[in-house]
Amino acid sequence: DDHNKENLFNSLNYDVAAKKRKKDLLNNKAKTQYFHQEKWIYVHKGSTKERHGYCTLGEAFNRLDFSSAILDSRRFNYVVRLLELIAKSQLTSLSGIAQKNYMNILEKVVQKVLEDQQNIRLIRELLQTLYTSLCTLVQRVGKSVLVGNINMWVHRMESILHWQQQLNNIQITRPPFKGTTLTDLPLCLQLNIMQRLSDGRDLVSLGQVAPDLQVLSEDRLLWKKLCQYHFTDRQIRKRLILSDKGQLDWKKMYFKLIRCYPRKEQYGDTLQLCRHCHILSWKGTDHPCTANNPETCSTSLSPQDFINLFRF
């Protein structure tokens, strides 16, 4: 009898474990997104959930329509930067639903990049940041720092590795259009276009396309303007580098400066907060503001400002 009871107990344990693994897998593969897709939300800093209007980072992430925002070229970089900041330090502050929505939005971002073959490096850096953070968090699973079953997070980490491999396998195809190209333009126009690039790595990559572009990409004035755009005069004076000819080597200074100081962030469209009614919305979105001049009450938020809004 004892032997039969032990076999029955083991069989029940096996069935429960099998059902649990199947449930975890189904939940992990579910693509249902719990977005309210609201155009604006009310945000109020409070210390307790009992306070009227209390809103967490996870709630704001769920309710604002970030899923559609990534399809807008003006908002894409803003959302990606926000995803990166959350991956670095705020992932554990999200609720289970918010974490699930985070991964769903991330998957949409990756699929968009795979389709249009743009912003590849940006998403590679995002995935690497997230994977590094998850490696640290999974090792601390005993402290319950992640919501959900550990197998679910291991599966998500495997998905990240798969996305990274897909990005590494991208082969940039030349468009069929055979009209005027960048190198066909006058040199002054080529240089003018290169001055619009805000990332020095893009300049280096562009210089590898053709010999003429290589010469332009080494222009001292180009790198000087890039340094002055991102950094203050005081920061620049602390990192002066002279070339063999005794001139300031602005290119080397730029790459040294970005290792020491954060670069200036610029976005086509941002989230904004109304100081009068505490409503958070995308720039250009109307909300029921009671101020006499609503436009004067709105403040643009950087991705870091958005996160700081929910630190109590």
From TrEMBL:
Its main location: cytoplasm. One of its GO terms (biological process) is protein ubiquitination. Pathway: Protein modification; protein ubiquitination. Keywords: Cytoplasm, Nucleus, Ubl conjugation pathway. Transmembrane segments: none annotated. It is found in: Cytoplasm; Nucleus. Signal peptide: none annotated. It comes from the Eukaryota. One of its GO terms (cellular component) is cytoplasm. Part of the SCF (SKP1-CUL1-F-box) E3 ubiquitin-protein ligase complex SCF(FBXO32) formed of CUL1, SKP1, RBX1 and FBXO32. Substrate recognition component of a SCF (SKP1-CUL1-F-box protein) E3 ubiquitin-protein ligase complex which mediates the ubiquitination and subsequent proteasomal degradation of target proteins. Probably recognizes and binds to phosphorylated target proteins during skeletal muscle atrophy. Recognizes TERF1. This is F-box only protein 32. It comes from Tauraco erythrolophus.
